[in-house]
Amino acid sequence: MSTHKHIDLICVAVLACTLLLTILFINGKSIGLETIVDRDAEGSSDSVFFTLNDRDGSWNTAGATKITLAGDHAAVTGGGAYAYDGGAVIAQAGRYVLSGSLTNGSVTVSADSGAKVWLLLDGADIYCEDNACLIVEQADKVFLTLAEGTENSMSSGAQYSEAAAADNIGGVLFSRDDLAVNGSGSLSITGAYKHGIDVNDELVITGGSISVEAPQDAIHANDGLRIENAALKLRAGDEGLNLQGEEALLYISSGDIEITSEGACVKSAGGLLVEDGSFRLRSSADGIHSADSVVITGGALTINAADDGIHADKAVSISGGSLKIPSCYEGVEALTIDVAGGEIEIYPVDDGMNANGGSGFGFGPPGMFGQNADADEGEKDEESWIHISGGSVTIVNKTARDADGLDSNGDILISGGSIRISLPGSGSNNAIDYGSESGGVCEICGGDVVACGASMMAENFSDGSEQCSIFFSPGYTASAETSVTLKDASGKVLLSYIPPCSFSSVALSCPEMQLGETYTVVIGDREEQITLDAVNTTNAGTGGFGAGQMGPGGGRGERPDGMGRPGGRAVKPEGEDGTMPVPPDFGGEMPDFSDMPAPPDFGGPPPEFGSKRESGEPDQREPEQPENAQQEPDASLLVEGVETGPQPVSSETRRMIGACFLVLAAGILFAVKYKA
Q1: How far apart, in Å, are the Cα atoms of 448 and each of 392, 627, 630?
Q2: 289 within 8 A of 268, measured Cβ to Cβ
Q3: What is the pTM of this model?
Q4: Is-contact 371 363, C-beta < 8 A?
Q5: Where is 165: in which H helix or E strand?
Q6: What are the φ and ψ backbone dihedral angles of 335, each rounded to 5 degrees?
Q7: Sheet order of strands, 493-497 included
Q8: What's the pLDDT tens digit per position in 533-591?
Q9: CA distances from 165 to 60, 67, 478 (A)
Q10: Residue 104 neighbours by CB distance under 10 Å
């Protein structure tokens, strides 16, 4: 065999092309090349949470297969589906329109594992006695669209067949794979067996008016639940929204959601993020319960709960919107609580906010939706705090018994916001209670506070605070609705509050207060002049301190970062008959399901106050955010598998790079052989 006379040039060209392809593959994005992706890929939308197909409720039905339900059978016009066993089976990817009424049967999607199926409900009414009405056995993803102006319904019997039960089919609408619901029509789901909607993978709802009633969970999903621009009315014998996956995210972007449930209205084994929307929750247990963290950046939430209004095993972060809890046992309970904005009103029968370090959760210090990678395996770091840096917080407890307004087993840190607390003035009710006995501190460097409660075990702000405060005990118990006013030397009113409960002590602080100045505390028609001789001045009125009165708190912790070691978790008091006290009725009837309305920082640990903390080592906590700094959620912490920042090289990328080097090596061998 002869050698081509231009073999040298050919080999050089092959090697150059191989190297060029390798460089382009590795650095394509940085030089402006775009990757062509499937239209349903997660990166194809302006949102990391919703794809274009998730949101497309008006897709073109031209050429779609029509499935007409006609009583005891179905008729199919077009390809990809066939009538079977009194219902229909969709066997291929494609678009399908479903209409009519089925008296006892199911529609099943059983397609290829990579198939995408679009299914339009155009006035469909399905009943199945012993199975789910719509079953997604296999597909890559099903997009269930509620046609504009249509009413659709699904309902099932109380006992599923042995085959259905053996297949773990647990809902009226059941899917083993990803399911997205969109459109502007309505869907009513009534279940008598287990759940209303049951999805083994991810469920996305981006539109429609959906009502669900079920004996167990109204909506039950595993790998994730994302809601946007939908109107939901849910009534459940157990949980309203229940997310089972420990690493999954329950994300609510917007919508109108009303839930009545015997269990938690919203329960997530993973994290919960609420950005906007209107929520009305009524629960015989917790309103919102997360085994991870709860983040609220907006929306209007009203929660009536027999137990906690919001409970998280890790952290609760609130930076916007409004949160009203008219009735609950405890208002907000978590390992750490951060409030950076929003309007919060809580009316508990126990603590308003409870940061419960020492409860044995065993999670690392707060990185939202993740554990501390630096912690040794099995190590428990249970630092707890309440940090308020903005917004308004109002806590009123008229039925308090050994209860607190703000209660932290570690620290309470206030750097902004407006705080008003009212608890009865008798017993051991503390407006503010923190872990001073275990090294915790209560420091203030911004915001304004009027906290009224009992005086027996009350604590003042710590002497490490940067903002001045007055702890005042008038020596008697003022009656409910007695006004509290703080005036400066010129008579200007700095603080004013009319607490709904009686009180025998009050803590006052605002940025205008200055060390060495004299102020007048007015309680009803009685006045007391107080000179600030310390940053945390404690003063008794003419009647003297109440029995057992505690002065300034803030014992120093021995840890170098100044954070106190939290104590044990408080035990909820029991009623006279040994049961939990029943919360008072604050008005408001159970939601009426007869009328469906139209769809209508985290940050890490709290900032160091720079406040005389005794420390032998530098404080490792993050610096305080600049004033008015925008704190957007870091989506990379919330959603697994979505590229939102620098990502590690995937195994597929490594294989492609390896293939390029193999081609390069083959080119070199080719050149050597034919050169010889």
Answers
A1: 10, 16, 22
A2: yes
A3: 0.76
A4: yes
A5: helix 162-166
A6: -65, -45
A7: 493-497, 484-487, 518-523, 526-531
A8: 999 999 855 443 333 334 444 332 332 233 332 333 333 333 333 333 333 343 444 34
A9: 37, 27, 63
A10: 16
